[in-house]
Automatic annotation (TrEMBL):
Domain Tryptophan synthase beta chain-like PALP: 19-307
Molecular function via GO: ATP binding; D-serine ammonia-lyase activity; L-serine ammonia-lyase activity; magnesium ion binding; pyridoxal phosphate binding; serine racemase activity; threonine racemase activity
Stored Gene3D superfamilies: 3.40.50.1100
Family affiliation: Belongs to the serine/threonine dehydratase family.
Keyword terms of this UniProt record: Lyase, Pyridoxal phosphate
Annotated CDD domains: Thr-dehyd
Gene Ontology annotations of biological process type: D-serine biosynthetic process
Domain of life: Bacteria
Source organism of the structure: Dyadobacter pollutisoli
Name used for this protein in its record: Threonine/serine dehydratase
Pfam families: PALP (PF00291)
CC cofactor: pyridoxal 5'-phosphate
Amino acid sequence: MSDTVPVKETIEAAHQLVAPFIHRTPIATSRFLNDLTGAELFFKCENLQKIGAFKARGGLNAILTLPEDKLKNGVATHSSGNHAQAIAFAAAKVGVKAYIVMPENSPSVKISAVQDYGAEVTFCENTPEARQEAVDAIVARTGATFIHPFNNYQVIAGQATASKELIEDAGTQLDVIMAPVGGGGLLSGTALTAHYFSPETKVYAGEPEGAADAVLSFRSDKIEKAPYINTIADGLLTYLGDKTFPIIKSQVTDILTVSDEEIITAMRYLWERMKLVVEPSGAVSLAAVLKNREQFAGQKVGIIISGGNVDLGKLPF
């Protein structure tokens, strides 16, 4: 285990470690969306990943790099859904108990999936403070090892493998990679991957206006909380961590915000035009490119579709 920012070799090792357990997800293209944006888009389809989201990568790397003595009492985390599934999935793979704290209003599809992997779920109020308090109590009671959803270098190194594959499989030099940002695990991993494996590629983030903490942090140079939380993108509600923020600040070009209406439009395009089941958080990257199409016109843009765990009974269209 390393308690330092992942270097090139750390990301390569993480990729080798998680590769037997994950899908090397496809890269999809759309002539319609290329025409609409004026850019050449390459979609990394992590909605087709094991557990339906990129977070399988970070969860697996975090658990597979834990020494045996840290695994014997199980693992614990808090998450609104995708990281919860990742830890439950990874724990099941290595045969250890998983204790998961989930907000009481988490999408039912995500709760069911976590329980199906055999994890013990505890519900809490949907605030970062309530989540942490609940998981601290579980750790104190069980001796389980806490794995933070994003503020953990092993998780970051695992998430970095998605953009590593994107860079390797796009078949062309990418000018830009666009990732969504919540706590910053995927974004910081993406930024490190671009820095080490494709230094000419700029990294941008898309963020919901209704959870706009990362853009404030990026501008003020310190970790900020969003002024209000109100967005359909339930996977992006948390704020940056002290491990993710410095990486993002030093390696990311800019953070672009999008409205829920713009997220729903992008989500609908992905469903209707590309036949991809994508959750709102997973459509934020495309929404940011659509909103800022003049900025990206004429460029080759990698877009990470982060997940597809959407409650089919509650589609926004």
